[in-house]
Amino acid sequence: MSAPLYQLKAEFFKTLGHPVRIRVLELLSRREHAVSEMLSEIGIEAAHLSQQLAVLRRANLVVPRREGSAVFYSLTNPQVAELLRVARTILSGVLTGQAELLADLQAAEPDTVPERRGSAPR
């Protein structure tokens, strides 16, 4: 019996649940990149990038291409780039709403300083 769709979706989102993997996918959303380019863009150790690329390869989100001694990566599906764009739009809306709420709270009581938990009132 195969896994239910919701379980497969959860595994997919777990794969996306690492900042380095998201950064790699964002870079590859623009164009194919050599591993050396990604290293300089992301600023992590080669071994760590290699581990993250392996996770993305196993999930069939990226595909490598060898050219001489260089290895280039690209997205297997352009819809991954669209998913990242949609996520950015959703987050922008959430953060805008939070910023508006914060501004409203600050405007409502401009002379108060929020108390920190565990500290005595001022």
TrEMBL record:
Signal peptide: none annotated. Keywords: DNA-binding, Transcription, Transcription regulation. The keyword DNA-binding applies. Residues 1-95 form the HTH arsR-type domain. The keyword Lyase does not apply. It comes from the Bacteria. One of its GO terms (molecular function) is DNA binding. Transmembrane segments: none annotated. This is Metalloregulator ArsR/SmtB family transcription factor.
